[in-house]
Design brief:
This protein is of the alpha/beta class. The chain has 15 helices and 19 strands. It has 2 domains: 170 residues, 3-Layer(aba) Sandwich (Rossmann fold); 315 residues, no CATH class. Bound molecules: manganese (II) ion.
Length: 491
């Protein structure tokens, strides 16, 4: 399902106390707000006004419908008037979709001269939203609270950002990841409990034979490869004469996509330790599939494959770019420190600063033919890297703010796509904090997703969230992780 197919249900709380005239005004204003928010063009998904709820039955009914409606990616509540929140206990307890409490007000200003008790009775968000908020807190219900005037650009942007996180949560519940081969031998951080991941995040992670992929590759026709080569020529520069290597990657792209689509998978992992029957490690093929929105994790890293797919789903239609990434090597000259991120081959061209080149070079590991790959530099700009690790008994999502910078040197002999960045709060603290939190070398790097969105997503999924940012200190992080460890054991 595409971003525009998701909708968010607007449920406005009230009660019968006010009489029909006030309730009609509340309902018509709520409908007007939904209409104006949709027309404003700042929200990625449609907001649908559903009901001005006055009884527990009305609330339960709309919640049950929301839970079972595949298009509904979340519920947004707002209290124009006072809605006694014991009425909401049943409904909120049953709610299984992402939940946003919008604390806003129909009018921006208090009308000084005209204000009277009729106005006061109709415009009670200031205390109606508090009564509603208490119940969310009392139920320990995972929720987002956004306060502010609904017509303000900033408020609408925050609602839109939350919607994208909610789409990521709903999308997560449907994810299937295709694994070609197991995890890289002896590697720990990319391992994890797939049953726990399915319970918490909804991911179905299953293995498929590399030999079957080989059959699919052999079945790709020359005409199909010719057509794809034409697309490659339109989009990339060719810096190689080895067209056979490029044609083989085109076959791999077509074959992997066919198997993914056959099984309804949104991402895949593979490993250079299991390329049985393949002539090349998929490089260009994997980069192309990521560009089309599929998730990927190398060396059997199904967690990062799924996270890449989720962040790509969250950012549909945005232009910054999102990719599988790996911390590779450091520049440690004082004052000019940065991290060089890359991979053996598989970096998504959505993050390229300029038109990528297709090159063919030997690969030091894997023992196969030199693979074709896209080579480019990443964009400059603010971004995040995220890593999901299995702590044993729980999943931890680690997110770090980074500033991508243009590489200081051209690096003409580096035959892979690369990005250089400064981690927050500074290079040394940033590295220490990441390692203390247990973050992997594999990450998803995104210029479009914000740390707040990942925090919202983690809350929706019920997993731990660690944010390393400009204010992080190692001392405080260690205390936070120590307390989180205790708290998560009690959950
Ligand atoms: Mn790797």
């Amino acid at each position: 399902m595409a971003m525009k197919d998701y909708e968010f249900w607007f449920v406005v709380g009230s009660q019968f106390l006010y009489g029909p005239e006030v309730l009609e005004t509340v309902a018509s204003r709520a409908a007007e707000m939904a209409e104006e928010l949709n027309a404003g063009g700042r929200l990625p998904c449609r907001i649908v006004y559903k009901v001005t709820a006055k009884t527990p039955e009305e609330i339960s009914k709309v919640v049950k419908e929301a839970n079972y409606n595949d298009n509904c990616a979340g519920v947004i509540t707002w209290m124009h008037t006072f809605s006694p929140s014991k009425m909401w206990i049943e409904g909120l307890r049953d709610l299984q979709k992402p939940y946003l409490h919008l604390a806003t007000q129909y009018n921006r200003q208090i009308p000084n001269e005209e204000i009277d008790m009729d106005f006061m009775n109709l415009n009670q968000s200031a205390h109606g939203d508090r009564e509603h908020g208490f119940l969310g807190a009392r139920l320990r219900k995972p929720r987002k609270v956004i306060a502010g005037y609904w017509r303000d650009e900033d408020v609408q942007k925050r609602i839109g950002d939350w919607m994208r996180a909610a789409v990521g949560a709903v999308f997560s519940k449907k994810i299937k990841i295709m694994r070609f081969g197991d995890n890289m031998r002896n590697v720990a951080v990319t391992e994890g409990d797939k049953v726990e991941a399915q319970i918490m995040l909804g991911w179905q992670v299953n293995t498929w034979p590399v030999g079957e992929l080989v059959e699919y590759i052999n079945a790709v026709t020359d005409a199909e490869v010719d057509a794809l080569l034409k697309e490659y020529r339109d989009r990339y520069d060719f810096a190689t004469d080895n067209l056979e290597a490029v044609r083989y990657q085109a076959k791999e792209e077509i074959a992997i996509k066919r198997m993914l689509d056959r099984e309804g998978c949104q991402g895949f992992s593979n490993t250079f330790e299991n390329l049985y029957g393949l002539e090349q490690l998929p490089g260009l093929a994997t980069q192309r599939l990521m560009e089309q929105g599929y998730g990927f994790g190398a060396e059997g890293d199904w967690k990062t494959a799924a996270m890449t797919a989720i962040l790509k789903a969250m950012t549909e239609g945005m232009q910054g770019g999102t990719s599988f990434m790996e911390d590779y090597t450091y520049e440690l000259t004082g004052g000019g420190e940065y991290t060089l991120g890359a991979h053996m081959l598989e970096v998504c061209p959505s993050i390229a600063a300029a038109r990528p080149r297709i090159e063919v070079h030997p690969l030091g590991i894997g023992g196969k033919n030199p693979p074709a790959r896209l080579v480019f530099e990443g964009k400059a700009g603010n971004a995040i890297v995220v890593s999901l690790v299995d702590m044993g008994g729980r999943l931890r999502l680690i997110c770090q703010d980074i500033e991508c910078v243009k590489p200081a040197l051209p690096m003409p002999n580096l035959p892979v796509a690369r990005v250089t960045w400064k981690p927050m709060p500074d290079m040394i603290t940033g590295i220490e904090a990441w390692i203390i939190a247990g973050g992997a070398h594999h990450t998803v790097l995104s210029y479009d997703v914000t740390a707040e969105q990942m925090k919202d997503w983690a809350r929706m999924m019920g997993i731990e969230f660690v944010h390393i940012n400009k204010d992080t200190t190692v001392d405080q992080l260690e205390k936070d992780l120590f307390l989180a460890d205790l708290a998560w054991k009690l959950k």
